[in-house]
Amino acid sequence: MHEMALIESVVEIAEEVARQNGARRIIRLRLDIGELSIAEPDALTFCFAAVTQGTMAQDAELEICRVAGRGWCLDCATEIAMSQRFGTCPICGSHQVQVTGGDDLKIKDIEIN
Ligand SMILES: [Zn+2]
Predict the structure, then answer these.
(1) Residue 93 C-alpha to ligand 1 middle, in angstroms?
(2) Span 2-112: which CATH code?
(3) How far is it, in rounded angstroms, from Cα 33 to Cα 47?
(4) What is the residue extent of each domain of the chain?
(5) 83: phi then psi, degrees, rounded to nearest 5
(6) How far apart are the first and last CA of the chain?
(7) How much distance in Å is there from the Cα of 84 to the middle of ligand 1?
(8) DSSP of 67-105, one letter per residue?
(9) Which candidate, 68, 59, 67, places its Cα nearest to that of 29?
(10) What's the 41 CA to ligand 1 centre distance in angstroms?
């Protein structure tokens, strides 16, 4: 499950930030996850609970914000909204579409104590 590895690195980064700020606990973590990301929010939440056992983020709240997918149609040179990774252009129906945003996972905010 790739969500496990993703969450592990997210928790590692969060702990690093918390330590640098002299915190003892991580209370809340906010993640931005693109709609086109391969990460499943439900799986992330599940993995988060497992991975954070015994870490500074134990019992922390995980908030997931979805970020809309965006793409660029090479045929009509227009920025389009994308809801799936290999979608077609809603204007001309072309498959020549490049994903330009909403395909990644980012830490938005870390609340520490
Ligand atoms: Zn198009």
Answers:
(1) 6
(2) 3.30.2320.80
(3) 15
(4) 2-112
(5) -110, -10
(6) 31
(7) 15
(8) E-EEEEETTTTEEEEESSTT---TTT--S-EEEEES-SE
(9) 59
(10) 30
Q: How far is the CA of 99 from the centre of ligand 1 (A)?
A: 13
| pLDDT for the residue numbered 94 | 96
Summarised one tens digit per residue, pLDDT across range 64-87 is 999 999 999 999 999 999 988 888
Q: Is 13 helix (H, G, I), strand (E, B) or coil?
A: helix
> Near ion ligand 1, which residues have CB within 5 Å?
73, 75-76, 89, 91-92, 94
Q: How far apart are CA 28 and CA 110, in angstroms?
A: 6
Rounded to 10 deg, the angle between the 2-20 and 41-51 helix axes is 60
H or E element that contains 27:
strand 26-34
Spacing, Cα 91 to ligand 1 middle (Å): 5
| pTM, to two decimals | 0.83
Contact criterion met (CB below 8 Å) for 62 and 32: no
